[in-house]
Specification:
The protein is of the alpha/beta class and 445 residues long. 28% of the residues lie in helices and 22% in strands. The two termini are 47 Å apart. 37% of the residues are buried. The structure holds guanosine-5'-triphosphate and magnesium ion. Magnesium ion binds next to α1. The site of guanosine-5'-triphosphate (GTP) has 23 residues, from α1.
């Protein structure tokens, strides 16, 4: 599968320093310490945005820094917390540590979040350090430094648009002029043997992925040629771009081509035939192509009108701009930009999640199965119950076990995720020792 990749630099904020200050008020002789705490540094957070499908944004912006916490001040004033930086990534993005190559997160679901670098904690002001014997604490704590490192983002690209059509109509040529992909192009059928992908940049700066699918022939749905395998790829795309050769060279009738390819799609899966489709007549630069295009247009329009009458779903599609006809030349570039932008605008109304969920459904065992099972594991180390799992270590990092409310939260999450049930199933008794990471505590739930 084709992967998109980007390396970016991230930095979480430093915690602010605690203040050294003493109360100064009229009529109060020796005021006590009143230095406030430093604010917390901002986190670097990745979040999954289903509106994105590529890592194209990271080619331009490579540095992401969260805000530093403000320093504490007198009168117990706490410094401001630094602002978090939230980095939006498309579903399916894997975040890796650039140095070690370790996978830090595998972000799949819209809305999912991952804190890649926590901001430093603010230092405590001197007001915390007064004791009975030390009434004038002349020190405060410095804020903790944030973290700074490079991460690799990797995305297995899912194609948004699938190019379909007869062999030799110019699908690879279209890919090569609209993206930076370099497919093989030649004047004979079946040049493209495996699907190729490329990222199209639209004028508004967003991107989408197109897949150049090897030419289909009649009988593909029955498994003729390698058609069946290619149809599986098309199944995953949100929009079909049907390319038709209107030059006299093809030796076939363009409208006949159009119907035949659609018939193959329908035979393979009725859902494919009703997938939004844009029709692009290519090679309009060739002599005689114009006449053939005009002929195609009148037959096509008649066909579309008839379909609208008999099928309300089709009418709705057409209203939304699907089955719109374009004239292009991949050779001269005519009509290409308009078509690219049009596909981009249509895609905005076709939800992304459904395609992604489809894939999880199809490849369920591979993608979602192990994730669920490996949420956490419990092992015995002598008498100690050892709980492992990335989520649980994150959880522990994010709570303060010395704090009553935090403890309550921690226990609730453990219960929700089934950790308590698992421990009980293993026969844990009150007072037994539980270990998570480096932290040990007594079981008391
Ligand atoms: N004149 C002209 N020739 C074109 C145009 N687009 C593609 N061609 C030529 O048509 C031939 C086939 O183009 P490809 O892009 O390889 O076609 P394909 O649909 O990918 O073909 P397969 O991979 O074999 O299915 C090549 O010789 C291209 O140079 C065009 O707009 N005008
Ligand atoms: Mg090709």
């Amino acid at each position: 599968m084709f992967t998109d990749r980007a390396v970016i630099h991230i930095r979480s904020g430093n915690g602010g320093h605690g203040a050294v200050s003493f109360r100064r008020e009229k009529y109060i002789a020796a005021g006590g310490p009143d230095g406030g705490d430093g604010g917390r540094g901002g986190d670097v957070i990745f979040t999954v945005d289903s509106g994105l499908s590529t890592l194209i944004d990271f080619r331009y912006k490579r540095k992401y820094a969260a805000g530093n916490g403000g320093n504490g001040a007198g009168q117990k004033m706490t410094g401001k917390n630094g602002a978090n930086v939230v980095i939006k990534v498309p579903p399916g993005t894997i975040v890796k540590d650039e140095k070690t190559g370790a996978v830090l997160a595998d972000l799949k679901y819209p809305g999912e979040e991952f804190v890649a670098a926590k901001g430093g904690r603010g230092g405590k002001g001197n007001s915390h350090f007064a004791t009975a014997t030390r009434q004038v604490p002349n020190f405060a704590k410095a804020g903790e430094a944030g973290f700074e490192f490079d991460v690799i983002l990797e995305l297995k690209l899912l194609a948004d648009v699938g190019l379909v059509g007869f062999p030799n109509v110019g699908k690879s040529s279209y890919l090569s002029v609209t993206t930076s992909a370099k497919p093989e192009i030649a004047d004979y059928p079946f040049t493209t043997l495996t699907p190729k992908l490329g990222v199209v940049m639209t004028r508004d700066g967003s991107g989408y992925v197109i897949a150049d699918i090897p030419g289909l022939i009649e009988g593909a749905a029955e498994g003729k040629g390698a058609g069946h395998r290619f149809l599986r790829h098309i199944e995953r795309t949100r929009l079909l771009l049907h390319i038709i050769d209107v030059s006299p060279y093809s030796g076939r009738d363009p409208f006949d081509d159009f119907l035949k390819i659609n018939e193959e799609l329908r035979l393979y899966h009725p859902r494919l035939a009703s997938r939004p489709q844009i029709v692009a007549c290519n090679k309009t630069d060739v002599d005689g192509a114009r006449e053939r295009f005009n002929e195609f247009r009148s037959k096509f329009t008649k066909w579309a009108d008839e379909n609208c009458e008999s099928d309300p779903d089709f009418a709705e599609y057409r209203e939304k701009g699907c089955y719109r006809l374009f004239e292009i030349s991949a050779l001269t570039g005519e009509g290409i930009k308009e078509l690219c932008d049009y596909c981009g605008s249509i895609l905005k109304d076709i939800p992304q999640e459904s395609t992604f969920e489809d894939i999880i459904e199809n490849e369920g065992a591979e993608l979602s199965g192990p994730e669920e099972e490996e949420l956490f594991t419990v092992k015995m180390d002598g008498d100690v119950y050892v709980i492992c799992g990335r989520f649980i270590e994150h959880l522990l990092d994010s709570v303060n076990l010395g704090d009553y409310e935090s403890q309550g939260y921690f226990q609730r999450v453990l219960r929700q995720k089934g950790v308590i049930a698992k421990l009980e199933e293993m026969g844990i008794q009150e007072g037994d020792t539980v270990r998570i990471g480096d932290t040990e505590f007594d079981f008391a739930f």
